[in-house]
C-alpha cells in the first residue's frame, strides 16, 4: 500500500485530494459559489427590502380592519408582492444574463430577439385607460362607504362591487400589456453566460487534469447545441404537448452522435455527470423545509411512503418476474420512475455504478413518459372530475420532471399547482436517501467479495455520490436562513430572489447534461439493453403501479385522514 501526504493512494480509501480532483466535489464548489454570490447580492439589499415590506404591511394591517377589501389594501398587497430581491440592481443585471431562448411559432429568431407589437399597443392603451377609469369609480364608491363609517351595508356592497369590477379591468389591462411585449435581445446575454460558465467549469476541469483550451472550445459547442435544443423545444405547436428543450437536447445530441458522429473537438466537453451534478446541487436550494411543512403530513405520506414502496416493488418485479440481467439498469429505471426522474437516476446510477448506456436509457424513457403524462394526466383529471387538490397531489407524486409537474399542475389550477410542486419538492428530498440506500445495498448485497464477505463502510462511502451532500447542504442552509428571516423576507429574498438565479442556472446545467448524454449515446450500444423490451415493460408496469398507489394514498391522506388540511389549502 502506497501512501502520500494526504491520506492514501491505492487502497481505495478516500483522499483529501478528492476534494479538488473529483467532479462530485467540483459540482458542490461551483453550486455553492453560485449560492453564496447570489446570497450576498440579496443580503446586501435586505434592509432596503425590509423597510419597503414594513411600509406595505402597516397599510395592510390598517386596511384589513375594514369590512371589505379596499383599494388601498389591494394596492398594498400588490406592491408587497412586487418587492423582490430579483429587482435589486445587482440581481437584475445578473439575471439579465441567465435567460434562455423563448417560445416562437413563425420565425425561430423570435426565440432570441423580440419586438414590441405595435398593432397591439392601441388595445393595451385602451385597456389601461379603462382600468384607470374603473379605479376612479371604485374610489368614489369606497369614499361614499367610508363617509358612512362603513356602517351602511348597501354602500359597502356597492363599493365592493366597484372594486371587483376594477380588478377585472386590471387583469384585462395586464393581459393586453403582455400581448404588446417588449424589445429584447437574448443573444448578448447568452454569449456572456456561455463564456462565464465555460470559465467556471473549465477551472474545475483544469484542476482535475484536463486541458482548459480544449474543454472551453468544446463547451462553447455544447452550449450552442443546448441553445439550439431550447429553440426547438420552444416551438409552440409542439411545446404544448410537452416536447420541451430538455427532450430536444437529448434528441439533438443523439442525432449528431449517430449520424456524423460526435466531433473530436466537442468530446472534451461531453461531461454528463459534471453538469447534472452541479445542477442537482442547485436543485437542493429549492427544497425548503417551510414549503414542505405547508402541505404537512398528507404530502409527506404521498411522497415518502409511496416512493420507496414503488422503488423497491419495481426493482423486485424486474428481478423476479422480468428476470432483467442487469441489476444496475433495473434499479436505475426504478429510481428514475419512482423518485423524481433524471435527478434520481443520476444519483442512483452513480451509487450502483451503472453503465452510461444504462443511464441514458433510463433518462430517455423518463423524458418520453414525462412528456406524455404532463399532457394526459391533467386532461384525464378534468375529464373524470377529480378534485383539484387530489389531482395536484397525484401529479406531484408521479410526473418525473419538476418543471413538468408545475406545468401540469398549473393546467388544473392554483391549488393543484401548489400541492403538486410541494409534493415533488418533498419527493426530491429522497434523492440523497435513495442514493445512500442503493450504495449500501449494492456494496453489501449485490457485489459481495468472492469469499462471501461483504465490503466495509469505506467502500460504501466511496460509491456514495458526494454531490448529494451538496444537495442536502444547500437545502439545509437555505431552509435555515428562510426560517430565521421570516416569511416576508423569505418570499422576497429567497423565493423571488436567490431562486430566480439558481433555478435559471440549474436549467442551463440540466440542458447541457442532456445534450452531453445525447452526444455520448450510440444506438448500437443501447440496442442489446432493449432485448425483449424488458426496460420498457419495467417502466410501464412500475409507473402503472405508481399511478395507482399514489392516487389511493393521496385520496386517503387528503380526504379521509386529514380533510382539515385539505380545506385550508
Q: How would you describe the overall organization of this protein?
A:
- The chain has 569 residues and is mostly helical.
- The protein folds into 3 domains: 48-87, no CATH class; 120-185; 190-568, no CATH class.
- Helix content is 75%, strand content 1%.
- It has 28 helices and 2 strands.
- The chain has helices at 18-21, 23-44, 46-63, 71-81, 89-95, 121-147, 153-180, 187-207, 212-233, 236-239, 245-257, 272-284, 289-295, 297-304, 306-321, 327-340, 342-352, 356-384, 388-398, 402-412, 414-428, 430-446, 457-463, 467-485, 487-519, 523-527, 534-561, 563-568, and strands spanning 113-114, 184-185.
- Helix 16 (327-340) runs antiparallel to helix 17.
- The longest helix has 33 residues, at 487-519.
- The chain is globular, with a radius of gyration of 26 Å.
- The termini are far apart.
- The relative contact order is 0.13.
- Mean pLDDT is 88; it is low at 1-13.
Amino acid at each position: 500500500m502506497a501512501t502520500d501526504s494526504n491520506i492514501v493512494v491505492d487502497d481505495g480509501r478516500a483522499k483529501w485530494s478528492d476534494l479538488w480532483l473529483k467532479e462530485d466535489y467540483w459540482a458542490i464548489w461551483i453550486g455553492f459559489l453560485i449560492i453564496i454570490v447570489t446570497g450576498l447580492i440579496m443580503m446586501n439589499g435586505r434592509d432596503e427590502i425590509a423597510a419597503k415590506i414594513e411600509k406595505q404591511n402597516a397599510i395592510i394591517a390598517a386596511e384589513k380592519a375594514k369590512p371589505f377589501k379596499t383599494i388601498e389594501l389591494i394596492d398594498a398587497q400588490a406592491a408587497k408582492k412586487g418587492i423582490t430581491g430579483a429587482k435589486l440592481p445587482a440581481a437584475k443585471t445578473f439575471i439579465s444574463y441567465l435567460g434562455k431562448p423563448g417560445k416562437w411559432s413563425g420565425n425561430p429568431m423570435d426565440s432570441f430577439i423580440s419586438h414590441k407589437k405595435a398593432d397591439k399597443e392601441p388595445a393595451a392603451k385602451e385597456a389601461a385607460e379603462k382600468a384607470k377609469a374603473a379605479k376612479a369609480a371604485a374610489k368614489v364608491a369606497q369614499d361614499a362607504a367610508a363617509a358612512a363609517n362603513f356602517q351602511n351595508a348597501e354602500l359597502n356592497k356597492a363599493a365592493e362591487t366597484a372594486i371587483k369590477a376594477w380588478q377585472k379591468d386590471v387583469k384585462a389591462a395586464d393581459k393586453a400589456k403582455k400581448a404588446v411585449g417588449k424589445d429584447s435581445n437574448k443573444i448578448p446575454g447568452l454569449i456572456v453566460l456561455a463564456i462565464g460558465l465555460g470559465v467556471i467549469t473549465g477551472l474545475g476541469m483544469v484542476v482535475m487534469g484536463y486541458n482548459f483550451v480544449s474543454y472551453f472550445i468544446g463547451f462553447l459547442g455544447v452550449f450552442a447545441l443546448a441553445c439550439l435544443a431550447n429553440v426547438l423545444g420552444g416551438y409552440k405547436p409542439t411545446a404544448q404537448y410537452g416536447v420541451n428543450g430538455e427532450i430536444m437536447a437529448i434528441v439533438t445530441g443523439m442525432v449528431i452522435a449517430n449520424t456524423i458522429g460526435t466531433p473530436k473537438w466537442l468530446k472534451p466537453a461531453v461531461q454528463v455527470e459534471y453538469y447534472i451534478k452541479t445542477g442537482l446541487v442547485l436543485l437542493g436550494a429549492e427544497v425548503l423545509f417551510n414549503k414542505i411543512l405547508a402541505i404537512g403530513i398528507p404530502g409527506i405520506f404521498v411522497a415518502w411512503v409511496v416512493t420507496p414502496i414503488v422503488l423497491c416493488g419495481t426493482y423486485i418485479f424486474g428481478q423476479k418476474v422480468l428476470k432483467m440481467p442487469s441489476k444496475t439498469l433495473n434499479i436505475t429505471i426504478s429510481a428514475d420512475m419512482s423518485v423524481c426522474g433524471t435527478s434520481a437516476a443520476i444519483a442512483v446510477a452513480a451509487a450502483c455504478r451503472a453503465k452510461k448506456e444504462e443511464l441514458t436509457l433510463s433518462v430517455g424513457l423518463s423524458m418520453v413518459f414525462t412528456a406524455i403524462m404532463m399532457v394526459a394526466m391533467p386532461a384525464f383529471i378534468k375529464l373524470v372530475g377529480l378534485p383539484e387538490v387530489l389531482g395536484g397531489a397525484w401529479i406531484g407524486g408521479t410526473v418525473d420532471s419538476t418543471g413538468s409537474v408545475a406545468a401540469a399542475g398549473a393546467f388544473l389550477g392554483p391549488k393543484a399547482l401548489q400541492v403538486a410542486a410541494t409534493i415533488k419538492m418533498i419527493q426530491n428530498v429522497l434523492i440523497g436517501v435513495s442514493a445512500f440506500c442503493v450504495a449500501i445495498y449494492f456494496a453489501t448485497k449485490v457485489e459481495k467479495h468472492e469469499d462471501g464477505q461483504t465490503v466495509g463502510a469505506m467502500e460504501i462511502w466511496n460509491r456514495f455520490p458526494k454531490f448529494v451532500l451538496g444537495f442536502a447542504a444547500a437545502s439545509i442552509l437555505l431552509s435555515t436562513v428562510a426560517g430565521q428571516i421570516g416569511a416576508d423576507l423569505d418570499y422576497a429574498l429567497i423565493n423571488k430572489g436567490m431562486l430566480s438565479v439558481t433555478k435559471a442556472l440549474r436549467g442551463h446545467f440540466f440542458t447541457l447534461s442532456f445534450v452531453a448524454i445525447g452526444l455520448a449515446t450510440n444506438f448500437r450500444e443501447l440496442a442489446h439493453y432493449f432485448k425483449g423490451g424488458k426496460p420498457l415493460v419495467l417502466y410501464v408496469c412500475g409507473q402503472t403501479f405508481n399511478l395507482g398507489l399514489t392516487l389511493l394514498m393521496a385520496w386517503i391522506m387528503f380526504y379521509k385522514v386529514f380533510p382539515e388540511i385539505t380545506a385550508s389549502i
